[in-house]
Amino acid sequence: MSALKKSLTTVALTGALLGGAFATPAAAADPNTCPTGKVCGWSGTNRTGTRTVLSVTPGCYPFTTARSVSNQTSYDIEFWHITPGTGCGVGTRLVTLHPRTYSDNPGSTVTGIAVYGR
Description:
By secondary structure, the chain is an alpha+beta fold. It has one helix at 3-21; strands at residues 39-44, 48-54, 59-66, 68-71, 76-82, 91-97, 101-103, 110-116. Keywords: Signal.
């Protein structure tokens, strides 16, 4: 085998091995995104920190404390800082997100959501 052919074979083999070493598994989920059909909240602003993922239908729900939120459902969702012990719609409405939108900083800590059918 010529030196040139050996070099090209070595380069091709090294490239194939290195390419595999840097590949991300297809099933790995990006913790800064929200899956389709779900509502997500993160403990930090700009979709950082611990992520909570919920499946929802129209209604009111308490929400894990979140500093950034994403609505990847087909519903309109109001995010609230609810007054403790009072339930939905009592407190401060922070942001309303239409389907497939997000807010990296809704202005305060989200503690409840109201989900509306379209």
